[in-house]
Amino acid sequence: MAFLKTVYTIWYRDLLRFLRDRTRIFSSLGQPLLFLVVFGNGLAPAVAAGMGGVDFRTFLFPGILSMAVLFTAVFSAVSIVWDREFGFLKEVLVAPVSRAAVALGKVAGGSTTALIQGLLIMILAPLVGVRFSVPQILTLIVMMILVAATMTSFGILIAARMRSMEGFHMMMNFLLMPMFFVSGAFFPLRNVPLWMEWLARVDPVTYGVDAMRQTALRGMIPEPILKALILHPLEVNLIALIAFWMLFLIPAVWLFSKTE
Amino acid sequence: MNAIEAERLTRRFGDFVAVREVSFTVREGELFAFLGPNGAGKTTTINMLCTLLRPTSGTARVGGHDIVKEPHEVRRRIGLVFQDPSLDDRLTAWQNLQFHARLYDVPRRAFEERAKRLLELVDLLDHAHQEVRTFSGGMKRRLELARGLLHQPRVLFLDEPTLGLDPQTRRHIWDYIMRLRDTEGTTVFFTTHYMDEAERADRIAIIDHGRIIALDTPDNLKAMIGGDVILMQTTDDARAAERLREALALEPRLTEEGLLIEAARGDQLIPRLLGVLQNGLEPPLTVHRISLRRPSLEDVFIKLTGRAIREEEASPLDMMRLRHRLWSRR
Questions:
Q1: For B178-191, how does the pLDDT look when each residue is reduced to its tens digit (9 = 90+)?
Q2: Which segments of chain A have a pLDDT < 70?
């Protein structure tokens, strides 16, 4: 019981901070929107030939959705480094609570804020001619939660021992941007060099993007074309995401518990 | 029962021994000060007592529980105010207290009542729903004091509670600390390098280079100095010291402020001092200034260590902290 209360307390603080910070909510909507409108419209004519008749903006939308979830999730984990630098972490570390519960609360908090961000992006779907049915929305929510939880855990794993913001930003540039770029969010992972194919295979984001793309586009475009655009069946994506999540979560919780 | 019992508490950082076999007890309800210059081991000791740092050897019992074997039980029973603010400044004062209450499992109804009373005691009730980042340094410290007592700890630890605050705010913070202590009856353990703050304590442990070099009530500590302290400035303090040693068998000490002499009856000694300094010396010495006062803790510290606390230069770590504090205040 005390364990769950701690998880809840940490989660609630993250949510409270997020909701109090309206500018952050709206400014973080700006970037995905920019990508969607500028990239989408700029590249659409150029890549039309290779898309098998699918509008590039429609193709791009699930990628942008996962981008919003991905970055919000990872950057919510930054708050651990932030809290350490500004002293608040001490208040948590000296409290008579389980450190594992604190870490799990952080995962829950980061996932929730990322999910909210993703839902806000979904409102933009009609802009690029994408419409969702209720089952599609529900499946997308599940996928967003999974991607968010996986990537928050990943962020905490990195932040657990990080002492400075600079260090965290560097790690993010060297890991997060490549992870995002090779995931297939911007282009179909077909006829790409072998090394990129392999990188994509060990990149958790790939599975999230693939799952969201097939969920979003199924029914909108002919099945054979969809088959050519996607990499794995939905179940494979699901299992892969859960596996990655555990791979990050367990060491993240463990490392955080050992903090002195 | 004692609130704190430390037994040969030791902490090393590599080759450096920050705290060396420190033993002391703090009685229930006592206001206990750890006085020493920067880098003496005060914060290291407090961090060990608060279970934030494991001792290299030795142990302590806080609130009846062992800090090494039962850190969780200790944490339940202590409140803490750190050197640096540890509030979430994006949340309101009330939300910060609420967060704390949940972590410490304070029942909701008890929380509301206690939070109100504590905020009132530190004069922040009117600012309860304001974001903490709009608070001044003194207001933040007051809020932390209130938060530290929210879960009714047996022992409240204050690590340099007035560091970085201006003199007027410092005095106010102490008024609040005394007020809180009187109404809550909590044992308070604090560290400081300010003499006037240590003076308020029931008992003081003077710590230097990781060791306790004296432990007693402020009055008893001052009684170590035999009576009065005479301070004088002459044209040549070194020669004056030499003369006083020879002529009156005194042991004057050269300090930055001038020549320091302890005496049982200072009022009677001064005329004799002037006599031997102004007569029979070639070239003659001029006494510029002479003063007589009751001994202070500063005098005790000088007697024990041979140097003044405030002469200590700030350590690189303190400089970093200060810079950080200035930076984060912007």
A1: 888 888 889 999 99
A2: 259-260
CA A26 to chain centre: 17
User: At B327, is the pLDDT very low, low, confident or very high (cuts 50, 70, 90)?
Assistant: low
CA gap B127, B135 in Å, rounded? 9
- Smallest Cα distance from A67 to chain B, Å: 26
Contact B91 A17 (CB under 8 A): yes
Phi, psi at A201, each rounded to 5° = -70, -30
User: A residues 105-164 near B, CB within 8 Å?
Assistant: none
Establish if A177 touches chain B: CB-CB under 8 angstroms: no
Domain B226-294 has CATH 3.30.70: yes
Q: State the nearest Cα–Cα gap between A120 and chain B, in angstroms.
A: 23
Q: Name the minimum distance, in Å, from the CA of B84 to any CA of chain A.
A: 7
**pLDDT for res B66:** 95
**A87 to B76: CB separation less than 8 angstroms, yes or no:** no
Domain boundaries, chain B: 2-221, 226-294
Instruction: Choose the closest CB to A87 out of B52, B85, B105.
Output: B85
Note whether A158 and A171 are within 8 A (CB): yes
Domain of residue A13 covers 2-257
For an interface test with B, which of A1, A11, A21, A88 has the most B Cβ atoms less than 10 Å from its Cβ? Answer: A88
Please indicate whether, in this complex, the C-beta atoms of A87 and B84 are within 8 angstroms of each other: yes
Helices (H), chain B: 42-49, 71-76, 93-103, 108-121, 137-149, 167-184, 195-198, 218-223, 237-248, 266-278, 297-305, 316-329
Nearest to B243 by CA among B268, B273, B219: B273
ipTM over 0.95 threshold: no
Instruction: Give pLDDT tens digits for B265-304.
Output: 888 888 888 888 888 777 778 888 998 888 888 888 888 8
Structurally, how many domains does chain A consist of? 1
B2-221, which class in CATH?
alpha beta
The pLDDT tens digits of the residues spanning B115-148 come to 999 999 889 999 999 999 999 988 999 999 999 9
